[in-house]
Amino acid sequence: MKRIIHTDKAPAAIGPYSQAVEVNGTLYISGQVPINPETGKVVEGGIKEQTIQVMKNIEAILDEAGYSFSDVVKSTCLLSDMGNFKAMNEVYGSCYSENPPARAAFAVKELPLGVLVEIETIAVK
User: Fold this and answer.
1) For residues 88 and 117, is the Cβ–Cβ distance under 8 A?
2) Given 3.30.2130.10, 1.10.3720.10, 3.90.1720.10, 3.30.1330.40, which CATH number is that of 2-124?
3) Considering the chain, what is the average pLDDT of its residues?
4) Vertex 117, ends 108 and 48: CA angle to 5°?
């Protein structure tokens, strides 16, 4: 059975998609951008600040669905510039100190709202 996940502690979907969908013990989290859900605005600062906000948004969705970072099995990181990979990786890695998930990272031409990073996540119970 498909369960739609929504929390006010992460940015609302700005299009025809859900924050996350759970099916058969697998949680699919839509790509999260660095929007502060309290202000509805992209956080100020560079890649470090933006990645911190993205990971907070992912954590809020995981929590709402009854999951944690330890349940994450795959992430896809989209960057506006691979020059930001090292700084993004440091913040990202702080959330996965043990048994990190599989991951892909790509540079893309541009991201929504001109952000520097977007991360989508899959978690399994």
Assistant:
1) yes
2) 3.30.1330.40
3) 97
4) 140
Q: Average of pLDDT values for 66-76? A: 98
- What is the tens place of the pLDDT at every residue in 16-66? 999 999 999 999 999 999 999 999 999 999 999 999 999 999 999 999 999
Are 65 and 59 in contact by the 8 Å Cβ rule? The answer is no
**pTM, two decimal places:** 0.97
CA–CA distance, 53 with 91 (Å, rounded to integer): 10
**Which H/E stretch holds residue 55?**
helix 47-65
Q: Where are the domains positioned within the chain?
A: 2-124
Nearest 10 degrees: Cα torsion 64, 69, 70, 71: 50
